[in-house]
Amino acid sequence: MTPDEILSRVLYKDQDVIVLDKPAGLAVHAGPNSPDHLELYLPGLSFGWAEVPKLAHRLDRDTSGCLILGRHAKAIKRLGKMFEQHRVDKVYWSVCHGAPEADSGTVDAPLLKVSARGQGWRIKVDPAGQPSMTDWSVLGRGGGLSWIEWRPRTGRTHQIRIHAKHLGCPLLGDAYYGPDPETKVRLHLLARAVSFPALAPSKEPVRVTAPPPAHMIEALRTCGWRGD
């Protein structure tokens, strides 16, 4: 990515927050395998302010879509409280292998982080894990795939990916939890929308929607999406 490309992905901006359409494949934080990461580009989103915006939450490297940034310390603190109080609504889209029998439902399955020597860590459904709930609905089906909307009630690591697998329809392109660990297909998971109260009391709530990334378009159309 270039600074101009990141700048072009701003979906919403006011005096307190920025909502960015994070590209798939870009980690939000630095790491051993992430020499290129979003935090390197945040100074370019200052828009003339001395303070650099900061992440209010995170998305996985391979997930695209709505990512909320706070433009100053007070905004970050208030956004943090909103997340703690479950006042930030998040909607995800995915394309999955197969499809559930029903058209909608809720996955209520606790998630536990486990480590294996030489294999790093994974998340799995386990009664000893943290409570985790995700509401879901099927928006379309076709070609052995399903287009599913997810509304997580909790915010656990890899929650949607694990809950999709638990439901019997793992995400297309999920090399960790899907049926094909050698897949070359990108993860088909989009942080489709976010909504939360405006930090300025006189303003309407913030509601932002991200477009599907290019790598999801073909599969979404197979499932009936028409781009409207």
Automatic annotation (TrEMBL):
| Keywords from the UniProt entry | Isomerase
Domain Pseudouridine synthase RsuA/RluA-like residue range list: 16-166
Q: Which SUPFAM superfamilies match?
A: Pseudouridine synthase (SSF55120)
Molecular function in Gene Ontology: catalytic activity, acting on RNA; pseudouridine synthase activity; RNA binding
Domain of life, source organism: Bacteria
* Keyword Metal-binding recorded: no
Q: Which residues form the signal peptide?
A: none
Q: Does the keyword Hydrolase apply?
A: no
Report the InterPro entries cross-referenced here: PsdUridine_synth_cat_dom_sf (IPR020103), PsdUridine_synth_RluA-like_CS (IPR006224), PsdUridine_synth_RsuA/RluA (IPR006145), RluA_PseudoU_synthase (IPR050188)
What is one Gene Ontology biological process annotated in the Swiss-Prot or TrEMBL record?
A: enzyme-directed rRNA pseudouridine synthesis
In the record, the note on similarity to other proteins reads: Belongs to the pseudouridine synthase RluA family.
UniProt protein name: Putative pseudouridine synthase in lpd 3'region
Q: Which organism is it from?
A: Paramagnetospirillum caucaseum
